[in-house]
From TrEMBL:
Recorded coiled-coil stretches: none
Organism the protein comes from: Comamonas faecalis
Alphabetized SMART domains for the sequence: S4 (SM00363)
Gene3D superfamilies the UniProt entry points to: Pseudouridine synthase, RNA-binding S4 domain
Protein name per the record: Dual-specificity RNA pseudouridine synthase RluF
SUPFAM superfamilies: Alpha-L RNA-binding motif, Pseudouridine synthase
PROSITE patterns, sorted: S4 (PS50889)
Length: 255
């Protein structure tokens, strides 16, 4: 394939468009080579290979996306830019990145967003909703600067809801103290909404949560934490998203 050229160059030449538009066509999933969709503008194609452009191809600038993941326990979801599978504030001991779970294969089959999955949707993702490696549940990754700014600036004031599995015997006034009266890192905690979901699970709704805070609170009233699962951030719920799968945040959803 010594005479092979970049796909973007071939598309620009074959369909009489600019190189920028050709790259938008390709990254938008509108271009196929020998019947197979190729999303990499730098892919090499030989003269004898058939390059086709979808009839409904749209060269408009591609919109950044936000992905909602149900992270299983054992994966790290850190803070800041995670593109290239690197977290700025990694505190785990070799735990795999939750980012590794984001692929076409783990996309929710009946995602109501109706969005086509593209390779570019997994690039330059930021995560401002950290979750401890041992915890599971809702994590958000975004390319959208507006969503990133919202989460970066407001994560401390957005209410987060967690279901916490506990073991042990709670103290007589334990539930009341969980709601108000405990300290963490030598500082009094503000009022928190805590209630029993069933005999072994507590529901926490709190703001400005700190790593280790919930286990410390439970220990103070005679309980030990078995599992933590985050089910809501602001107004965005985990809902029925299966563990290990993700969906697109819809345009009308707001944190």
């Amino acid at each position: 394939m010594d005479d092979a050229i970049r796909l973007a160059k071939r598309v620009a030449r074959q369909f009489a468009c600019s190189r920028t538009m050709a790259e938008q066509y390709i990254e938008g999933g509108w271009v196929s080579v020998d019947g197979q969709v190729i999303e990499l503008p730098g892919a090499r194609v030989a003269p004898q290979q058939a390059v086709a452009l979808a009839q409904d191809a749209n060269p408009m600038e591609l919109t950044p996306v936000t992905l909602v993941l149900n992270k299983p326990a054992g994966y790290e979801a850190g803070l800041g830019l995670e593109a290239g599978h690197t977290s700025h504030t990694s505190r785990s001991q070799g735990a795999p990145q939750a980012l590794d779970l984001l692929s076409a294969a783990t996309h929710l089959a009946d995602d109501p967003a109706g969005q086509r999955v593209l390779l570019r949707h997994f690039r330059a993702l930021e995560c401002f909703t950290p979750l401890p490696t041992e915890a599971s549940g809702l994590v958000v990754y975004t390319q959208d600067r507006r969503v990133a700014r919202k989460l970066r600036e407001d994560i401390e004031v957005l209410e987060q809801e967690c279901i916490v599995e506990v073991a042990g015997q709670i103290q007589e006034d334990g539930l009341q103290r969980l709601c108000h009266g405990l300290t963490f890192n030598d500082r009094p905690l503000p009022p928190i909404k805590v209630s029993w979901q069933n005999e072994t699970h507590l529901r926490f709704a709190l703001k400005g949560i700190r790593p280790g805070q919930i286990p410390s609170m439970c220990e103070a009233v005679g309980l030990s934490v078995v599992d933590i699962r985050r089910i809501r951030i602001g107004r965005v719920p985990l809902a029925r998203l299966p563990e290990g799968q993700w969906r697109y945040l819809q345009p009308w959803e707001r944190f």
